[in-house]
């Protein structure tokens, strides 16, 4: 036993001496305190996200030998505050930050403080949803001209974010489109702007918005617009058979529309004959009017909100 203990004893004695010298050197050093700006990261489970924006950095004060602390390079991000919420379910969570949250702490150094030392976080399910686009505008066209309508391409965008935030969104607005000095239709390229910073648009490409601007509208009255039945299976009659329709739009455009190009359509598909008549709402449609002109035509009024439709027992021939 003694032979094993004293085997290579000069080297063993030298190792002990070096270790003692290092201990003396370290313990004899000045102990200092140093603050470090450290990245803060929250780890969540798949399908979950945070409501709100927690700080992305924390302030860590370390105490230890001067030689050890001087070796820490804050630009290399050798340390990190990690909050592990991978097992968390939706709801509010209060996290107390301590030594276990600091990764990369050098040996021989202790933590004097962490700021923030406590965080309240709200965990929510992550939701993806398709939202219609509603272009935003600022200003007005010059006198004598009017903004009629606008259409975005694509008409919808897909967003992702906390379920509680995404569910409350009914439309996605765009960057404001200026209308000043506009006297004709134009195309604008704008971005989609979520109302909440926690909601992200998956496709960040710009939207194309066709903005319809033309001469200020006037009104034209069409007194005998025929009522047309759509989806008719049985013989039917409409009362009244014609309606009075008032249109609004640019004067030149309205002058180009003839009475034969307008009709009031009533959908009777799926209806069965009965003793009492049906009261159905008509919709105004245009025939052979260019699709590019339709956004500038407004239906100012229709003489009747509903049309009385009476169905007979006889089927119509197909």
Describe this structure in words.
With 318 residues, the protein is mainly beta. The protein contains 5 helices and 25 strands. It has 3 domains: 88 residues, RNA Polymerase Alpha Subunit, Chain A, domain 2; 89 residues, YbbR-like domain (RNA Polymerase Alpha Subunit, Chain A, domain 2, Beta Complex); 98 residues, RNA Polymerase Alpha Subunit, Chain A, domain 2. Strands 2, 5, 8, 11, 12, 15 and 16 form a 7-stranded mixed β-sheet that branches. The longest helix is centred in the first third of the chain and has 19 residues. The radius of gyration is 37 Å and the shape is elongated. The protein starts with a helix and ends with a strand.
Which helices and strands occur, and which strands form pairs?
Elements: H1 2-6, H2 9-27, E1 31-44, E2 48-51, E3 57-65, H3 66-70, E4 80-85, E5 91-96, E6 102-103, E7 110-115, E8 118-134, E9 137-138, E10 145-153, E11 156-162, H4 163-166, E12 172-174, E13 177-178, E14 186-190, E15 192-193, E16 200-201, E17 207-215, E18 218-230, E19 234-239, E20 242-249, H5 251-255, E21 262-267, E22 278-280, E23 283-286, E24 298-302, E25 307-315
Parallel strand pairs: 1-4, 8-12, 9-13, 18-21
Antiparallel strand pairs: 1-3, 2-8, 3-7, 4-6, 5-8, 8-11, 10-17, 11-16, 12-15, 14-17, 18-20, 19-25, 20-24, 21-23, 22-25
């Amino acid at each position: 036993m003694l032979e094993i203990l004293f085997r290579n004893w000069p080297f063993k004695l030298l190792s002990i001496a070096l270790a003692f010298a290092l201990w003396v050197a370290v313990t004899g050093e000045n102990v200092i305190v140093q603050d470090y700006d450290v990245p803060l990261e929250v780890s969540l489970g798949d399908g979950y996200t945070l409501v709100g924006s927690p700080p992305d950095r924390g302030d860590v004060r370390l105490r230890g030998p001067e030689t050890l602390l001087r070796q820490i390079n804050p630009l290399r991000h050798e340390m990190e505050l990690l909050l592990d919420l991978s097992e968390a379910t939706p709801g509010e969570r209060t996290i107390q930050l301590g030594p276990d949250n600091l990764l990369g702490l050098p040996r021989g150094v202790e933590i004097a403080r962490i700021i923030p030392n406590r965080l309240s976080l709200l965990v929510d399910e992550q939701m993806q949803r398709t939202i219609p686009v509603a272009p935003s505008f600022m200003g007005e066209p010059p006198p004598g001209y009017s903004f009629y309508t606008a259409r975005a391409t694509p008409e919808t965008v897909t967003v992702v974010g906390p379920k509680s935030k995404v569910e409350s969104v009914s439309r996605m607005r765009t960057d404001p489109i200026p209308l000043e000095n506009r006297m004709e239709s134009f195309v604008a390229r704008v971005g989609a702007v979520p109302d909440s910073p926690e909601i992200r648009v998956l496709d960040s490409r710009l939207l194309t918005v066709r903005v319809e601007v033309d001469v200020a509208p006037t009104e034209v009255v069409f007194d005998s617009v025929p009522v047309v039945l759509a989806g008719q299976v049985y013989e039917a009659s409409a009362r009244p058979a014609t309606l009075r329709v008032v249109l609004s739009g640019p004067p030149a455009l309205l002058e180009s529309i003839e009475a034969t190009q307008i009709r009031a359509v009533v959908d009777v598909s799926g209806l069965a004959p009965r003793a009492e008549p049906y009261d159905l709402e008509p919709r105004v449609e245009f025939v052979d009017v260019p699709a590019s002109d339709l956004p500038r035509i407004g239906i100012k009024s229709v003489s009747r909100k509903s049309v009385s439709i009476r169905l007979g027992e006889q089927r119509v021939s197909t």
